[in-house]
Amino acid sequence: MKKSITFKFIANILVAVVAFLYFAVNNVNLNPFYFEGAFFWCLVITAYIALWTVFKFGSFIPKFTPADNGKFNVTPGQPIPKIIKVILVAPWAFLIVMMIFSSPLISWPAYRDQLGESEVKTFSSDMQAVDLNQIPIVDRQLALKLADKKLGEKPSLGSQVILGRPTIQKVNGKLIWAVPLHHSGFFKWITNLSGAAGYITVSATNLNDVHYVDTYQIKYHPNSYFFHNLERYLRFTGAAFTGITDYSFELDDNGQPYWVVSTYKNKRGFNLPEATGVITVNASTGEHHQYDMENIPDWVDRVQPESFIVNQIQNQGEYVHGIFNFSDKDKFKPSKGTAIVYNNDHCYLFTGLTSVGQDESAIGFMMIDMVTKKPILYQMNGATEYSAQKSAEGKVQHLEYTASSPIILNIGGNATYFMPLKDREGLIKQYAFVSVENYSNVGVGETIKNALRDYQKVLKNDGFASTEFTGTDEEQITAKVLRISSEFNGTETVYKLLVENHKDKIFAVPAITSDDLALTQPGDTVEIRYYNSSDTTLMVHFFDNKEFTK
Question: What is the pTM of this model?
Answer without folding.
Answer: 0.80
